Amino acid sequence: MESDCRIPMSCLRPRVLVLHALFWGLVCLRVFGSALLSEEKPTVAKAVTMPCWQVEEFVVATECTLCNAFQTKRQLACIQTGYVERINCTKSNKEEYKSCRSAVMEEHLFWKFEGAMLGLTVIFALVVIGRQRSLDRQASEKVRRQIESI
């Protein structure tokens, strides 16, 4: 009599369970860690040193452009994404640089992601085909042994 359990017994081995826990732990750490890092709460000390574009309205003077080697070393705004835009704050009349995300960069990241997904699809399709062939071989071997035992 077979069990009604839908989880294969090989999935309940301690090594497999530890690998699953490690994988999902890393995924959760990545997701929740980035969420926690992105939620910066301004404090009183930060309000003084905050860039003008975070506190007041601004006008974009130069659209999002790629930082050169000098800007990457000297400007903090270039370090985050590698792209920067020049802005003018309306009230304080200051000119500052703000990190931005370029459409070209986003498109490049999108196609890298699509390529990775296509590669993984091919790899896992080959794994499934190999596993199916292995199972078919085992089943036919089992049938052959049953016929021979008659």
TrEMBL record:
Recorded topology in the membrane: Single-pass type I membrane protein
GO biological process: mitotic cytokinesis
Swiss-Prot/TrEMBL keywords: Cell cycle, Cell division, Cytoplasm, Cytoskeleton, Membrane, Mitochondrion, Mitosis, Signal, Transmembrane, Transmembrane helix
Location within or outside the cell: Cytoplasm, Cytoskeleton, Microtubule organizing center, Centrosome; Cytoplasm, Cytoskeleton, Spindle; Membrane; Mitochondrion
Entries under InterPro entries matching the protein: JTB
Oligomer status and interactors: Interacts with AURKA, AURKB, BIRC5 and INCENP. May be a component of the CPC at least composed of BIRC5/survivin, CDCA8/borealin, INCENP and AURKB/Aurora-B.
Name of the protein: Protein JTB
Lineage: Eukaryota, Metazoa, Chordata, Craniata, Vertebrata
